[in-house]
Amino acid sequence: xxxxxxxxxxxxxxxxxxxxxxxxxxxxxxxxxxxxxxxxxxxxxxxxxxxxxxxxxxxxxxxxxxxxxxxxxxxxxxxxxxxxxxxxxxxxxxxxxxxxxxxxxxxxxxxxxxxxxxxxxxxxxxxxxxxxxxxxxxxxxxx
Length: 143
What we know:
About 40% of the residues lie in helices and about 20% in strands. By secondary structure, it is α+β, with helices and mostly antiparallel strands. The radius of gyration is 18 Å and the shape is globular.
């Protein structure tokens, strides 16, 4: 478990959000990928920001109420997202999770986005490790 790296649990199949994307398209991407947030990147896949469901809810509520049209991701994204390295230990990241911390982390290698890692993926790996340890203890007790 201590040697498990972020690269082994990250999702690399999700397309990031590009600058200038209308918020309605961002919402579609969030919902279709079942994630609470996504990184915003430039054409070279450098992470410029992060957009969450919460960001979209507020902006679309205001936009719809005032009839101001469809805002784009640049208007609402968080501009200083926390990123992690694919070589980072899963245990190290799990130890740093807490209230108010992101639920989705962009994974960046050499300045470019290579994937995302979610709290759910971390939780899943921790649960698997716990089951493995429990089975091991049970087998040892039978011997």
